Amino acid sequence: MAELRISAGVPIVVRFESELDPAGTQLQEQGSSPFESLDVSGRLLLLHPSSSAWLWPRMHLQVRRMDGTSLTLVLVPGPPALADVQVDVFLHPFSPGALRAALEKVSAEHETLKLRYARSEMELARYREDEFNPDVALAVLLLDDEASSHLLKGKPLKVENSDVHALVWFIRLAGRSAYVFLVTNRHRTQDWTLLRGEILHGETREPLPVIARARPSILPPGATGRAVLVTRTPPSSRGDFYSIALRGPDGPEWQLCYSGVQL
């Protein structure tokens, strides 16, 4: 017998492949019912458990179809998170409805696999492009603690907001300008993730091509990691000012930004 998970105050819609007989659809146990209402409408069985449904033991619900055949559902009380909300009942695995549902499930799984494959192909293409990219090589080098200890000089700049704190170093090397952030996630519950980095011209707001890398990729609350932005130093950058920003996935509250810097 199939189980139907019910929870206090959580309505359930049970759909069948053929019409139901309201007179023959009832609880097998005698006495009070755990439902505020139990209605039959065509092929639908509508259940509304009462606020005390979680106190009831397992019960048996007999459902009769208009052709005279019956089946029994076992009602299993439980927490709201595990309650059934919409249920399709198929009496045979090869019925048209069951086959349609199985096909929809396989199609959804197929689309998920296609999406994962496309993402993997994009990642592979990016790794191949990065293999001989000097900007990426510099970013990876600056993410290393030992290498950074030899390359980063001077007193870092402090940048912070209510959720994130960072020490920032600037370095010029081999025609590149790089910013190294030592980031600390001060949020109590949420992780911090680098979504993208930006270097914008102070007047035109035109963005420069930037390589952004972080290690680790996800900072849990209280953790510290590195983020690096690398761009090729523009030939005409002398005297120009830029804005630098690290942006997380959830908007300004995850943003580290300061303006008026030179490359």
TrEMBL record:
Residues 103-130 form a coiled coil. This is Uncharacterized protein DUF2381. Keywords: Coiled coil. The keyword Coiled coil applies. It comes from Archangium gephyra. It comes from the Bacteria. Pfam families: DUF2381.
